[in-house]
Design goal:
This protein has 487 residues and is α+β, with helices and mostly antiparallel strands. 35% of the residues lie in helices and 21% in strands. The chain is globular.
């Protein structure tokens, strides 16, 4: 940003916001230089932390008038570079917009500002016997605004859905400063379903300033089975067998041996460290329904090749099992200087094939990988271990990650499940979507942000970028990109 433009922006913002809503020195802005994908870093020109909706409106109008890029930011836990700053722009943080506005016990809803932490909602409504279902691993820190931007899921999304299934209404400030309300507090609203459009929009359509979420009754009983396998393929087949039997677990997670060992060393969750894979399968509901389901699932897991199937003895052990899974990412961080967390989704039937292919790619690139899966819905999180201090290793890691995404597409899946596209996967959008589809994405974005100032260069590639990437597209249901022919 030119110094004159930055000065004009600061002048406009200073008239609308108090001094403690700005950060403009390099040392204090350093925590904002990246999100959870620390491989990509960029200092912003300014960090702005508004305290209310009116201040958000003032910031958006000032940025439009000075043509300043705006990067919305929640807690910065995004793993795809979606909150990476723009070199000529500002970071607009929701850190101070962190109040729970209203809890409606009768209608089972909560209305919150975007900076409220995911876990804080469940903690606030727990005395009412309620909770908020989406529970990403970062739920202790991630914000509801960020959850909406990424359409976050979690270990229990198989049964209870993603953010899009658990949000009723969103208020959003457009770049012009106008406040729009999408959805309603009722079960449905008239007109186009623009609420779903905003879910996963990665800050490119507007700034989320208020969210009304759906609350659920806490299940009276929740039981967790842990099954260990001596073969990854068998574990993948077991997942399909359970779902095919008509049983939808509340959570159905998989980890391979490297992830198991890292987690056990960190959390001491009681995981079998010699197993090639484990499955955590949680069933919840009322006691009379859960008991027969536990028997059926146990039988299916054993028939699929489980070496051992155990049941959490009590609530403390159940919580410990899940603590291990939710701490998989930091656990892997303890055994490697850096790791690159991938996120793709595949049909469940392809789990065994994809796991075997990832193992082959790991050998090809000479990089270890620890696999963590939302196995029930086919959402993969391979963690590629590398050392950024070694020349060329990050580039090799990115190539490996790109091949995993190509693999997901080749088996009929998609390049993201819940982490978004951001900067990380923008090139692979050229592989998955045709020119016409990408053009439609851009038209939708322009309808909300004609100046292209909201989180620019993220998620939707330009046609020139696709041409430079050398991607061919989906034509008549077939992939013709050369990188996909290997799979």
């Amino acid at each position: 940003m030119h110094a004159t433009s930055l000065s004009a922006l600061k002048q406009k913002l200073s008239a609308a916001l108090p001094p403690d809503c700005f950060i403009d020195d390099a040392v204090r802005m350093a925590p904002y230089e990246c999100d959870g994908l620390s491989a990509y870093k960029q200092m912003p020109q300014l960090v702005v932390l508004p305290e209310n909706v009116e201040q958000v409106q003032a910031v958006m109008r000032a940025c439009q008038e000075t043509r300043t890029p705006v990067v919305p930011r929640g807690a910065g836990t995004c793993l795809s570079g979606g909150a990476t700053p723009h070199p000529d722009g500002i970071v607009l943080s929701v850190a101070k917009l962190n109040q729970i506005l209203h809890i409606d016990e009768k209608n089972r809803t909560a209305t919150v500002l975007p900076g409220v932490r995911n876990l804080a909602i469940s903690q606030a409504v727990a005395p009412l016997g309620l909770y908020y279902a989406p529970d990403p691993s970062s739920q202790i820190a991630c914000t509801i605004g960020g959850n909406v931007a990424e359409n976050a899921g979690g270990v229990h999304c198989l049964k209870y859905g993603l953010t899009v299934h658990n949000v009723l209404q969103v208020k959003m400030v457009l770049l012009s400063g106008e406040v729009v309300t999408l959805g309603s507090e009722s079960l449905d609203s008239p007109g186009y379903d623009l609420l779903a459009l905003v879910m996963g929009s990665e800050g490119m359509l507007g700034m989320i300033v208020e969210v009304t979420v759906r609350l659920l009754p806490t299940p009276p009983v929740a039981r967790v089975l842990m099954a260990s396998f001596d073969d990854l393929g068998k574990a993948g087949e077991a997942v399909s067998a359970v779902i095919a039997a008509g049983i939808i677990p509340a959570g159905f997670e998989m980890m391979d041996k490297p992830a198991i060992r890292a987690v056990e060393d960190f959390v001491h969750a009681g995981y079998p460290t010699e197993a090639e894979a484990i499955l955590l399968c949680e069933l919840d509901g009322v006691e009379q329904d859960i008991e027969p389901q536990l028997e059926t699932v146990t039988t299916l897991l054993k028939k699929s090749g489980a070496v051992e199937v155990g049941l959490a003895e009590d609530e403390a052990q159940r919580a410990l099992f899940w603590s291990g899974r939710k701490n998989a990412f930091p656990a892997v961080g303890r055994i490697s200087p850096d790791y690159y967390c991938m996120d793709g989704t595949i049909p469940r039937k392809a789990l065994a094939h994809v796991l075997q292919t990832i193992a082959a790619l790991s050998k090809k690139h000479g990089l270890a990988v620890a696999n963590v899966f939302h196995a029930g819905d086919g959402n993969l999180h391979p963690l590629i271990l590398y050392d950024a201090n070694k020349p060329g290793e990050l580039e090799r890691t990115e190539e490996f990650g790109g091949e995993i995404l190509d693999l997901c597409i080749a088996v009929g899946g998609t390049i993201t499940g819940e982490h978004g596209v951001g900067l990380e996967k923008v090139d692979r959008m050229c592989v998955q979507f045709s020119d016409e589809e990408l053009a439609q994405f851009r038209l939708i974005r322009e309808a909300f942000d004609p100046d292209g100032l909201l989180n620019p260069d993220k998620a939707i590639p330009t046609l020139n970028r696709c041409a430079e990437f050398g991607a061919m597209h989906v034509h008549h249901g077939k992939m013709s990109h050369p990188d996909l022919e290997r799979f």
